[in-house]
Amino acid sequence: MIAVEINDAGDGTATFSVTVRSDDSGWDGYADRWEVIEDGESIAERVLTHPHEDEQPFTRSQSGVVVLGEEVLVRAHHSVGGFCGTELSVATD
Description:
The protein has one domain (3-91): Sandwich (Immunoglobulin-like), CATH 2.60.40.10. The chain is 0% helix and 58% strand. The chain contains no helices and seven strands. It has strands spanning 3-8, 14-20, 31-38, 41-47, 58-65, 71-78, 82-91. It is elongated. The relative contact order is 0.31.
């Protein structure tokens, strides 16, 4: 993962746009999701339904995320390697 952007929707929720760089190798191994962690609990997950071997890095968004604290952790998951790469700690204010 290389970047996270958070946009306040003004209704108590936020949209997370997460940019991931992965060594996708087709269906044999690819970044299959990313998630937002707050206080050790997953509060949002964006499932990635297919490999992105020809689109690197790539950005996907998830809206409607309710964030209560001032900081979250965002991490990516690989279908073969599990949670891997850089986890980003992001201020939410």
